[in-house]
Specification:
about 300 residues, alpha/beta, Aldehyde Oxidoreductase, domain 3, TIM Barrel, four-stranded antiparallel β-sheet
């Protein structure tokens, strides 16, 4: 996102997206992060900062964006020192301008300084994802298309990054390989053994083994695969790297018999056209795998002691 980007108000809360995070996995992420960042404490602060010194600092936005990670920032500060006071000035999903104060922290200076980098790293990345998602959502506005993430997330941080997508008004795809069936090109190549004529038969047999609540999605990369896949009774068909003309033809061919997902070659320049083609879902790996952390800083306002 550029400093001059314009973001419409985020609709995450209006559409009822879940903007809560479970405490246990967040704490586990934070504990791992602090074990990595300060395995023996913060020797710089221990050397330079008196034990009794206190500090007040603000989380300051240096560029506009959408806030995500408010409670993660708070929990990071208070995991280091439960006595640290954190006032959240904005909520997850709120839009902000450059210069906005997002949170205020008061406590022992050594504790604030030890927690600073872990807290900032996470809230900067989460807010970047929320901001990028909001840009995509805005460009798809007025169509039926839902913007979703993918499994292209940072290992160990998926729960935070998917939450950030929701803060930006997007939705989540399957969480893991255990949640739904998604047969992609490599699955189909192995399964059919090079005999595409058996595709419908093999998919139908596979679907018969699933429980009725398990979602079954199949990716296709050619127009002639659509009918054989639909004949197997799948729930969603993913049109991968189709041109806009092909997407429109694909949507017409499906004709409501399954949900249509578009994926591949989706960016801020192409998403509006893809959404206008009539697809139901647009999955975008770039929501999480290529964002640059948003420029937020923790600035000390006052010290005492």
């Amino acid at each position: 996102m550029t400093e001059n980007s314009v973001i419409a108000p985020v609709a995450a809360k209006a559409v009822g997206l879940d903007l809560t995070l479970p405490a246990a996995p967040v704490r586990e992420i934070l504990e791992r992060a602090f074990a990595e960042d300060a395995p023996g404490g913060d020797i710089t602060s221990q050397l330079l900062i008196p034990a009794g010194a206190r500090a007040t600092a603000v989380l300051n936005a240096r560029v506009p964006g959408v806030f995500s990670g408010a409670t993660v920032f708070r929990d990071a500060m208070q995991l280091v020192d439960p006595g640290t006071e954190v006032e959240l000035l904005l909520a997850d999903g709120d839009r902000f301008d450059a210069g906005t104060h997002l949170a205020r922290v008061s406590g022992r200076a050594r504790s604030v300084l030890l927690a600073e980098r872990v807290a900032l790293n996470l809230v900067q990345r989460m807010s970047a994802i929320a901001t990028r998602t909001a840009e995509f959502v805005q460009l798809a506005e007025g169509t039926r298309a839902r913007i979703t993430d993918t499994r292209k997330t940072t290992p160990g941080l998926r729960i935070l990054e998917r939450f950030a997508v929701r803060c930006g008004g997007g939705a989540n795809h399957r969480y893991s390989l255990s949640d739904a069936v998604l047969a992609k090109d490599n699955h189909l190549a192995v399964m059919t053994g090079g005999d595409p004529a058996r595709l419908t038969e093999l998919l139908r047999a596979a679907k018969a083994q699933l429980g009725h609540t398990t979602h079954f999605e199949v990716e296709v990369d050619r127009m002639d695969q659509i009918e054989p896949v639909l004949a197997a009774g799948v729930d969603t068909i993913m049109l991968d790297n189709f041109t806009l003309d092909e997407l429109r033809q694909g949507v017409a061919l499906v004709a409501g018999r399954a949900r249509v997902e578009a994926s591949g070659n989706v960016n801020l320049n192409t998403v509006a056209g893809i959404a206008a083609a009539g697809v139901d879902v647009i999955s975008i790996g770039a929501l999480t795998h290529t964002v640059a952390s948003l420029d937020l800083g923790l600035d000390v306002e006052l010290t005492a002691g």
